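P.,

For your records, the input lines for the assembly:
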Amino acid sequence: MAAARPIYLDHQATTPVDPRVVDAMLPYFTEHFGNAASRQHVFGWKADEAVEHARHQVARLVGARAKEIVFTSGATEANTLALRGAVQARRDRGAHVVTVATEHKAVLDTCARLAREGCEVTVLPVEPDGRLDPGRFADALRPDTVVASVMAANNEIGVLQPLAALAAACRARGVWLHTDAVQAAGHVPVDVEALGVDLASFSAHKMYGPKGVGALYVRRSPRVTLEPQVVGGGQEQGLRAGTLNVPGIVGLGAAAAMAREGLAAEMPRVAALRDRLLAGLERALDGVAVSGSRTERLPHNLHVRFAGVDGEALMTSLADDLAVSAGSACASGSREPSHVMTALGVDVVDRWGAVRFGLGRGTTADEIDRAVACVVERVTRLRAMSPVGAGVRA
Amino acid sequence: MTGTAYSGAVRARCRDPRRAGGWPDGTPGVGTGERGSLDAGAWTRVQVHVADGSNVIDDARFRVFGCSAALASASWAADALVGRSLDEARALGAAAIAAALDLPADKVAMAALAAEAASEAVRDWERRMGAGDWGLGPGATAVGAPGQDSQATR
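Structure tokens returned:
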């Protein structure tokens, strides 16, 4: 069953760079190598022109204006700039931050650091389907709340949050709403204007662009002003200093344009494959539980728990055939289940059985069928050596 | 969702978990040791079989619920136990398992589960041997041949 190369079903970790994106980037390494900040000669003009074109491409994907896009080294930096930048810029208002237990560590760890520095941070729980209750969210907003951060789509379980309702609650109270839209952008429609969010983070490598480049949307009207976190050069309207990664930015722009063009066709295609994957697993195996809402989720994500099986061991046993992600990590002998599984209130033993399948643009029905066969075989084998279900409860 | 980088030895054990399975409780000649808990995310059972009148383990099996390191440790330990005397089996330590599998430092606890379960299995065999107690009540039916339970997972 082993293929020459494993089937790649880990597109929420990263995506391959689309060859058309590579083609768009290549001239900016060699022929058009100028520094976009060199305003005095053609080399700089050419680079600057490419950066501004990419800015428009990214803005169009997410319903923003070009001036509202700030390029960064990726989404982690964008999240940092949004949260730390907002807290530092709004000291007059207060020092309260609201976020959610299922956020990416890039947000949770930034919030934890803000808490150590004197901020008060409220971390809201989610419902069993992974969604945030807008009423509970609104209740958590206070006159001294400066920013709230709620991801558009969860990176583990793919669940979409009701951003429009959350944004309305924020707007009514003068709280800025930041969203980590890394997993959503380019995969489902994201329109910052329609949603009403104030800050949004994006990453190129989650949508067939290169690694090491991302963007932060910063609303102009009503105006959101941030304190920069990287200074010294004044690039990106003074919000993010440093020589611009022109080839990377060109790649992000090209990836955004392609995602926008392909979105309407790709969403149902990949959702059908995801459903085929789940149906195949459920047909052959008992004890398959989908994590999070079955309807409010990314079309290319399937997060399931196999009862009686450890997801990490399953992932390793599959590694020759299939590249997937497990939902838990261990440290220092004491294992920690995924914070997302914990937040969902999944039974403590079942938390270990989580596996994330991330489908992509290149995924085919044949790959899905082969993946199902591999997973069924391995789960069956692991269950045969598992005490769970064998009447043993240690 | 980052994970541990495992050695080829661990990955090979996960692909092909040799000696998976076990004997039903009370099987004559079988000692059983268990360590860990499901709630903590790692549980290992090691069983050894010693033929009547012998002092050498002639078969060993494991069951496990846990990460790749726990699975590989239990499988490697079961392999290593076969052919050992009981004293040699008792001497099997976590360090040897961890070294053989090139486990990361933060995974040595998984090797310890296997080593402790193996030691406990030997003690259990000795205890039952001394007591003549294999848990078989009157009228107990014959159990399957050693290893039969493991066929599905070999």
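Two observations worth noting. The CA atoms of residues 91 and 119 of chain B lie 8 Å apart. Residues 137-154 of chain B have pLDDT under 50 and may be disordered.

Regards
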